[in-house]
Amino acid sequence: MKRLEDNKKWFTFSNISTIVMTVFVLILFFRPEVKGLVIQRLMKVGLFQPDVPEISEASSVPVQQAPNQQVLFTDQKGNTINLSDQKGKVIFMNFWATWCPPCIAEMPSIDKLYAKYKNNKNVMFIMVDVDGKMEASLAFMKKKNLSLPVYISAGAIPKEYFSGSMPTTVILDKFGNLAFHHLGGADYGNPEVTAFIDKLAK
Predict the structure, then answer these.
(1) What domains are defined for the chain?
(2) Helices marked H in 60-121
């Protein structure tokens, strides 16, 4: 009888909720996809918005000059591109990894943004897998039903673009200057991002 009473005391709302929260935290810790999904839900309620510079017809977009060095990437077909050869194009460049929860969370919004510009010869997307594992990245894109173009680094990346934090997103103007730099996950479905790219692409 005493044992039954002890069991009833143990099965309190407080104890059960503590167990549920502990399990949830452990799942978030060990399953980056679940954590990514949680962040994605928060994006839908207006959190994790990118800090896009204000644009007006009367003022130019503030920019930072491009680093004076070659920046090379290899695409999924094995072709190497030089960033300096892409002058005349607005470059949306994202540094990510398949195991990074904020990267996973923001990918669908970047994919939708890419869909708007994939046929625009003046805008280019470069999704850089920082681990340099092309096959794993392509498998990730296929599994998530994403059509983003994957690249890996073929040389040193200037710290002005990427200093180790993931995800990192930069947007370069048509002259190769740094017009936007954001650390951490963000919702790139925000109309301000589209307006910003459109302004740069004019």
Answers:
(1) 72-201 (3.40.30.10)
(2) 101-117
20/158: higher pLDDT: 158
Task: Report yes or no: 100 and 189 within 8 Å, Cβ to Cβ.
Answer: no
CB within 8 A of 105, min separation 6: which ones? 36, 37, 38, 39, 40, 43, 48, 185
The structure tokens listed for 135 are 């096959």
DSSP characters over 128-160: EETT--HHHHHHHHHHTT--PPEEEESSPPPTT
pTM above 0.90? no
**Mind listing the pLDDT tens digit for each residue in 130-173?**
999 999 999 999 999 999 999 999 999 999 999 999 999 999 99
Q: Of 94, 86, 84, 103, which Cα lies nearest the Cα of 33?
A: 103
| CA separation for the pair 157, 16 (Å, rounded) | 49
